[in-house]
Design brief:
Strand content: 15-25%
Subcellular location: Membrane
Keywords: Glycoprotein, Membrane, Receptor, Signal, Transmembrane, Transmembrane helix
CATH class: Alpha Beta
InterPro entries: ANF_lig-bd_rcpt, GPCR_3, mGluR, Peripla_BP_I
Order of helices and strands: HEEEEEHEHEH
Distance between the termini: 38 Å
Membrane topology: Multi-pass membrane protein
Helix content: 25-40%
Number of strands: 7
Protein name: ANF_receptor domain-containing protein
Number of helices: 4
């Protein structure tokens, strides 16, 4: 019992740190809370992890999955930090990440995948506005996506991302 309380306390402190440094962003989409971890960088990697369990009604996220979901999220952030700290790995290039929660639901994982695809489609490449100008869009598309905790979800997500030439 004390071990689980200590784990929850460390997760809470980690979340506060991420929020204070501007890495953790929470936003509202479709009347649902969407947890997103965003780390700015020259190249953006996407992440799909089951940070929460499936909710009781199937549409909302449930309880936090500290052992599986949060640890995967932390591992990706740690790897990003390690690569960015070593100037010999990618000299002059900083890796960033946009990590989304699948809530351990297949359909929600696909819905989150659409966030990555929508950003790619809206990035303005090859699009010209009616007045002849190029569109301005502040969102950065992901170069590759890491994640999906199960093979079934991975196959569905990979099939969708393959259509848009995103590495999974």
């Amino acid at each position: 019992m004390a071990h689980s309380r200590a784990r929850l306390a460390s997760l809470f402190i980690c979340a506060l740190h991420l929020k204070a440094t501007g890495i953790l962003e929470m936003s509202m989409h479709n009347c649902r809370r969407q947890l997103q971890v965003l780390v700015r960088g020259d190249i953006l990697l996407g992440g799909l992890f089951p940070v929460h369990e499936a909710g009781l009604n199937g549409s909302e996220c449930g309880l936090l999955k500290a052992a599986q979901g949060v640890q995967r999220l932390q591992a990706m952030l740690f790897a990003l930090e390690a690569v960015n700290a070593d100037n010999t790995v990618l000299p002059g290039i900083a890796l960033g990440a946009q990590i989304l929660d699948t809530c351990s639901v297949d359909s929600h994982a696909l819905e989150q995948t659409l966030v990555f695809i929508k950003t790619m489609m809206s990035s303005g490449d090859g699009i010209i506005c009616m007045d002849g100008s190029r569109p301005t869009y502040s969102e950065q598309p992901v170069a590759a996506v890491i994640g999906a905790a199960s093979s079934q979800v991975s196959v569905m997500v990979a099939s969708m991302l393959q259509l848009f030439k995103v590495i999974f």
